[in-house]
Amino acid sequence: MIAKQTPLSTHDAPAPNDAASGDAVRYEELLCEARELRGVSLWQDAWCRLRRNRVAIYSLYFMIGISLMAMIVPVLPLQSPLDKDLENRIFLPPNRDPFRLGSRTDLRFKDRSLTSELLDFEQQLRDLKQSLKQASVGERGDIAQQLEAKYQEDPLAKLWHAPGPVVRRMLRVRVFLFGDWCIPSICGTDSLGRDALSRVCWGARVSLIVGVIATLVSLAIGVSYGAVSGYLGGWVDDLMMRIVDIMYSVPFIFIVIFIITILGAEENKKFLDSLGINQLVVFYILIGAFYWLTMARVVRGQVISLKNEQFVDAARVVGASRTRIIFHHLVPNVMGIVIVYLTLTIPAVMLFEAFLSFLGLGVAPPDVSWGLLVNEGIKVITPVKIYWWLIVFSGSALAMTLFSLNFLGDGLRDALDPRMKNRS
Amino acid sequence: MRGIGSFAIRRAVWIVTTLWVVYTLSFILMRLVPGGPFDEERNVPAEIKHNIEARYRLDQPMYVQYGEHLWLLVRHGDFGLSYKLGDYSVNGVIAEGFPVSVSLGIFALVFALTLGTTAGVVSAVRRHSLLDNSLMGAATLGIAVPNFVLASLAIVLFVFQLKLLPAAGWGSLRQLFLPAVCLGAPYAAYIARLTRTGMLEVLGRDFIRTAFAKGLSERRVIVRHALRGALVPVVSYLGPATAGILTGSLVLENIFAIPGMGSHFIEAALQRDYTMAMGMVMVYTFLLLMMNTFVDLSYAVLDPRVSIGKL
Q1: Which residue from B minimizes the CA distance to A370?
Q2: SS3 A366
């Protein structure tokens, strides 16, 4: 339009002076208009489309919420997920009776309260350390032993399973903020008198972490495998894809169970422990090793369609190595579709973890995960009495998380699909 | 149906190769790990230990064991003896469990297909109606709820509250109903969504308009013309669905105390009964491969553009 009109207007204008100023004004207007147009990047565009998908956005909020919750669980005023009370608190239905941390008599906490016990414990530790400093060389070994023994009596370790340094600090914050107060058993208690709400929250940590880490492992394998296979092409590609085909046609869940069977034997466990590998790590690796297939195929397809683009040629011309082209130029360009598959893989992995834990082959007590909780809930179903709260809360936590991850994945896929552009 | 011979041959070669790879890898895994399967038992005198090892042929070198096992399997279809169930052979256990698991799986699959396609067609035809929205809402929920959660809720509701169905066991149709429904429900949900999408796409095509223009009834257009095209994605989903149903049956057989292969497999895994677990893995792999072959065949039947020679 512009190119056509400009020469015409100069032609028509009788006075060159007027024409020039008229042109200038018109150009000015066009320039203004152009300035107001903003280029929309792929991600902005996708975000706009995602925002219109209400369910996907709610799912996103839900996922953000539940991840934050899982991160700060130790700080929340929850009861202990482990402390059993077989005498007074078995199978309590959801109730609002107040409960104080450390009030169980068998714990033998000072004043039956965690805060006073913790204060007492720290005082004793300080005293011991003090005397260790002042003690003569001969007495030192003895006092060091006492100190070691004292550490074993840590009240925090009695209520929470093997807290690491970060969790321990967070638990301190929790004690500092809320003291002994905790949320009453509004979700009831289980067959050993443990608080169901607290177990569901702590289970969220394990379930989500397993989902995310195992997915990241599979992501790393799948993306590199697919990108290398697609970029190299030829017989390498053929071979690599045949391997994927074989793995696809194998019911891998059974193989994973088979491998867990073998690795779970006593001698193998010792062997793995000596390498510093526990069951969860084995689990990540196994899941990662089997869930990358779809990712590899998708990435390969994308890379094949991208590898003849000019930016790849340009990179090759300036002398970039193959590795650099694959991982610096091609992989970032397939991230969109990778993210979509990521959000769809996480629920699949979480479901699988729940499934294995349910069968007693996944996360082992005293760790808790949602699958394990549902299993515990099912075990105590009897014709005599139904403890519905043990299934409903853990089950719906699992179901809602899977639900929103699935929705988010679907929403993202639609949002990032350029064919969906300008559709309602 | 041209080219079915060469299709069958190629597929058979593929199946045998895959089975062999799975077998070999499992065998290597099983034997490479430190410690034999009987190390956990109490300390037994050397002679007894020797006898045990001789009975299970563990005293032979690896390649001899591999050769013997493979030969037994190929020649007689024999998976050998169970390591943990004293007098049972793996074949015996599979022979007991297989029919149970397969009938459970078939019931679940049939249920998923019937309910899924019906719901999908109905909601595609009555698009954006209340019925459509509620059916699709239920379908999304069905996809997200894991089958063991569904099963436990169903037990609480139907068995203990309403007292309509028995809680567990095997033998009667009433006992089969609940596990089959719980097993099939997530797949019914997925199939419903697939059918709806496929149906909506097909209903927008020219040949459907032509069919309506000829004056055919809605029912006839949908059943005779539209459904066939809409079912193609459903059929291609049957492969993954079978895999899922096989997996799901592991859990549901456990919950409902059904004496199928799944519960034996889990038992074998927990008891570290390697031969048993391996035999089961082989059977499951074979089932899945066969199912995928059938799916590919029916693909060609449903969609005239797909020729068998190219599969």
Answers
A1: B149
A2: coil
